[in-house]
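Handoff note, outgoing to incoming analyst
You'll be picking up this chain. Sequence as last confirmed:
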Amino acid sequence: MWFNTSMGHIRPTIDDEHIKQIQGLIQENPSWHRSKLSQEICKLWGWQNAVGQLKDISCRDLLRELDKTGTICLPPALKTTRVPGKGSDKISHMLHNNEIIDAELKELIPLKIEVASSKAESDEFKSYIDQYHYLKYDRSIGENIKYFVKSRDGITVACLMFSSSAWKCRARDEYIGWNKEQRVSGLYFITNNSRNMNKNKIQTFQGNAA
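Most recent structure output, in case you need it:
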């Protein structure tokens, strides 16, 4: 029997019935690739975020874990396993102003925080991060939002990116002090600070960024 109780953004605890359901979908639909399989499972389980987007990337991670342990047998991957730095995001490096801003904060305020919403702005953001952040850009997964921080003269002084919260993070969870049930219900209200970069190591903000 298929069960389609909605689980929202919560990652399911897999039991024997879930395994039978996944195995049934694989056997009954041999032409489905892994992406199609994960999308259909999300639809059946109601596994989506608060705005209705399927959590198919999280589902594929779950399916790979089950395949690795031999619990299920996934169809062959259409693409080879992603290598860090070789993700789907195409990054073109742009030329940026590398001059150090040697100024007091009062000379730059009021600061303006702008969302990188257009493709051009997103490309510019990726270029900054990939060139000046020690972790590079790699790729963004799941929900995320990118910001430029600009001086009153319109000069970009920092870049910030926030992403969907990690399912588990020991240091965070111990600090909050919540149990498993509280974490499951409250995780949606938490975000990850994925990237925090002060462009060109701006002297004004060195050592002061969170």
